[in-house]
Design goal:
- The chain is of the alpha/beta class and 206 residues long.
- 34% of the residues lie in helices and 14% in strands.
- The chain contains 7 helices and 6 strands, in the order E-E-H-H-H-E-H-E-H-E-H-E-H.
- The radius of gyration is 27 Å and the shape is elongated.
- The chain starts with a strand and ends with a helix.
- Belongs to the universal ribosomal protein uL4 family.
- Part of the 50S ribosomal subunit.
- Keywords: Ribonucleoprotein, Ribosomal protein, RNA-binding, rRNA-binding.
């Protein structure tokens, strides 16, 4: 399908053919949810830890004699029912990552790209290059284009000046095409792909 190409100066730069097998799929919320949950699970640090009765500080000596004191039978004071005691079945460090088939991940990425195109929120940019690394100049260009909440995906590498200029703009993310993922595409309102990114993604996903 044909799609217009624009520049950072908001001028037309011709058209590009978008592959139907990458940008023309039907939206599937179940597939997108599976991959987003998978991505977020991988990000979890899993560093939570609670001490068991064998790890809390304190003596293991019997608190007081078994009989004759008029009190309940008591061993040491590190049990879970005592103040400052250990935790039973508490959290331990672990990884939350799990496997997801490669075909599912690829199909979800194609679905996310197709969904943005169907919503009219996909823009193809000729090149993501600027003359200056100053944030103010790039922010003015993005504001003129109406890209307030945007993910910009470039080719194999993002130009250094563009990356530095965009680094400090709120709600604007910049990624190379290798980093294109479902979560980042969905969390931003607008998706901007350079022509190099379109070519790379089509080669990667066809």
């Amino acid at each position: 399908m044909k799609h217009p190409v624009t520049t950072l100066d908001n001028t037309a730069a011709g058209e590009i053919d978008l592959a139907d097998e990458v940008f023309g799929l039907e939206a599937r919320g179940d597939l997108l949810a599976r991959v987003v949950h998978w991505q977020l699970a991988k990000r979890r640090a899993g560093t939570h830890k609670a001490k068991t009765r064998g790890e809390v500080s304190g003596t293991s000596k019997k608190a007081f004699r078994q009989k004759g004191g008029g009190r309940a039978r008591r061993g040491n004071l590190k049990t879970n029912i005592m103040r400052g005691g250990g935790v039973v079945h508490g959290p331990v460090p672990r990884s939350y990552a799990y496997d997801l088939p490669r075909k599912v991940r690829q199909l979800a990425l194609k679905t996310a790209l197709s969904a943005k195109l169907a919503e009219g929120k996909l823009v193809v940019l000729e090149t993501a290059k600027v003359d200056s690394h100053k944030t103010k100049a790039l922010a003015a260009k993005l504001a003129a284009l109406g890209w307030a909440n945007t993910l910009i995906i470039d080719g194999a590498e993002v130009e250094e000046s563009f990356s530095r200029a965009a680094r400090n703009i709120p709600l604007v993310d910049v990624l190379p095409q290798q980093g294109a993922n479902v979560y980042d595409i969905l969390r931003r309102d607008q998706l901007v792909l350079t022509k190099a990114a379109v070519e790379a993604l089509e080669a990667r996903l066809k």
